[in-house]
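Replying to the earlier thread about multi-chain prediction with a worked example.

Input:
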Amino acid sequence: EVQLVESGGGLVRPGGSLRLSCAASGFTFDNYGLSWVRQAPGKGLEWISGINWNGGDAGYADSVKGRFTISRDNAKNSLSLQMNSLRAEDTAFYYCARGQRPGIATAFDYWGQGTLVTVSP
Amino acid sequence: EIVMTQSPATLSVSPGERATLSCRASQSVSSNLAWYQQKPGQAPRLLIYGVSTRATGIPARFSGSGSGTEFTLTISSLQSEDFAVYYCQHYTVWPETFGQGTRVEIK
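Result:
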């Protein structure tokens, strides 16, 4: 069974940093691209970052470019998102999502349950 | 960035009736179009990819159509478990963007 389990969310002050992790199981991890998608409470979905199967290609939404860094460790079946210079508008549920293929820009066939990040004084 | 626009924002439908949801892209996304269902407190679930291919385990009452910039998700006969929010998404290039969602509610 494919599982994606996010962790690392919590309350952080504006300007602070947080590192999210996504532990994957039930599939051959380095056969798939991965992304982070967030959802502010009561709002829609926003793709914020993606990475291909070997980490050689990564992309970001303009809203997080220069502040967030995506990475993966294929030996540990793990995806990470380092979030710096956090703002109130970064408050959201953050989902880890598996792409349908190794490359970039794919639909997402499996999602984690999400981890909540709250940015507040 | 490709902008995805969904209509209507809310659709009121009686159980057993057909629901038709629309999604428009600001430029052609070819066939790189997916639909997701999200229920309260849950993660999104992939319904359709490649405009019209149902994901694993998705019932046949869900169908997708369209091309280029205009797409439709049809639910042929709404069941109680289908009342949810539906999002379209293009995955042509980064950033992959989502529509703002259509809420399907019980009439």
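Strands of chain B lie at 4-7, 10-13, 19-25, 33-38, 45-49, 53-54, 62-67, 70-75, 85-90, 102-106.

Feel free to reuse this layout for your own posts.
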